[in-house]
Design brief:
single chain; alpha/beta; Quinone Oxidoreductase, Chain A, domain 1; Rossmann fold; 2 domains; 7-stranded mixed β-sheet; 6-stranded mixed β-sheet; 19 strands; about 30% helix; globular
């Protein structure tokens, strides 16, 4: 079938992207789902730093690539072997497929799936296939368009592996469901799966973008004392409004002597990581979920780690098992304790993605959502 999608033509284009325009929107052909796959009509998709990191070249992926990895939609058609999801079901799309059998999957979320990681790096679905094509450029014919993290949600429809989706009940709105696929799994998962704070203990979140604010919301929902840290005043104000006990600029948090047993770093920069370490109390855990540039380096004192019995934990996708964790967050949302709608900072069209990437790079947004009508 023919769809409309947003394709990254080249990685590492010069900013501002509104001028260099590395993302184009146009028609593509989408194959029918193969065995173990399904076709989803996209309802809502979020714009995340993981998209930006491919656009700006910090994380190299094969191009052309149809971007988008945080989304929700309605299943329209299932391939052979898919028996537990039926057309008409709303699903959350997650960016790390899990085969369920590899060494990574056997760690219950601590390590990513090896099969899914290989497919994501290659720009394919889990089975190694590519389901997207378009008219060739220059010589006619056809060319493949790679998948982004097994999802490619910046489009009207997507074909994905069954292992890339989690069904949710119809009462979960599409915009909430989309946020569950990355922002909430990554940020909230970093709290509950990697940080594991004791009941009633303090949690500090460094970096209040979509992922960091989701971590803050989950920590508040679970009854912890929460401190937010960010360089943007408007985000500090929102953090207080959403239940943070205090909110500081990074230097002010350090200067005030704030410390916590669990500190979540969600900014994706070496300096933010160093700030998170400074804010971690003796015996505490620093959880890093941000994705800095590959060449970024941070300064760490091994003596402090030893003398203060500190722990540093890396957490990819919030150390989550989506089928286990998404229902937990849905339950918190249903009870009114997790107001995920507050993460949506703006709604945009597909043809505004270049400008959206600029705003994301400037730190002025939480989650920009693309919504699709029937």
């Amino acid at each position: 079938m023919q769809i409309i999608g947003a394709v990254l033509e080249r990685s590492g284009a010069a900013a501002p992207f509104a001028r260099s325009r590395p993302i184009t929107v146009g028609p593509l052909d989408l194959d029918e789902p193969g065995p173990g796959e399904l076709r989803v009509r996209i309802e809502a998709a979020g714009v995340c730093h993981s998209d930006l990191s491919v656009v700006d070249g910090n994380r190299r992926r094969p191009t052309p690539m149809l971007l988008g990895h945080e989304a929700a939609g309605i299943v329209e058609h299932v391939g052979d072997g898919v028996t537990d999801v039926v057309p008409g079901t709303r699903v959350v799309m997650t960016f790390l497929p899990r085969c369920g059998t590899c060494a990574g999957c056997r760690t219950e979320g601590r390590l990513p799936c090896e099969v899914g990681t290989d497919a994501n790096n290659a720009g394919t679905l889990v089975g190694g296939g590519i389901r997207l094509q378009r008219a060739g450029r220059g010589f006619g014919g056809r060319e493949d368009v790679h998948h982004h993290l097994g999802v490619s949600a910046f489009a009207s429809h997507a074909v994905v592996s069954r292992t890339s989706v989690v069904p949710v009940d119809a009462d979960v709105p599409a915009e909430i469901a989309a946020l569950l696929g990355c922002a909430v799994l990554t940020g909230g998962g970093a709290v509950v799966n990697a940080g594991r704070p004791e009941p009633g203990s303090r949690v500090i979140v460094v970096g209040l973008g979509g992922v960091g604010m989701a971590a803050l919301l989950v920590a508040v929902a679970l009854g912890h004392e929460v401190i937010g840290v960010d360089a943007v005043d408007s985000k500090l104000a929102l953090a207080r409004e959403l239940g943070a006990d205090a909110a500081y600029a990074p230097a002010d948090a350090v200067g005030a002597g704030e410390r916590a047993q669990v500190v979540i770093e969600a900014a994706g920069s070496a300096r933010a990581f160093e700030t998170a370490l400074e804010l971690t109390a003796p015996g505490g855990t620093t959880v890093t979920v941000g994705l800095p540039a590959p060449a970024a380096r941070a300064s760490v004192s091994p003596l402090v780690l030893t003398a203060q019995a500190r722990t540093i934990v890396g957490s990819y996708l919030g150390s989550a098992v989506p089928r286990r964790d998404i229902p937990r967050f849905v339950d918190l949302w249903r009870t009114g304790r997790l107001p995920l709608e507050r993460l949506v900072s703006s709604r945009i069209r597909l043809d505004e993605l270049n400008e959206a990437m600029d705003r994301l790079a400037q730190g002025s947004e939480l989650r920009q959502l693309i919504t699709f009508s029937d």
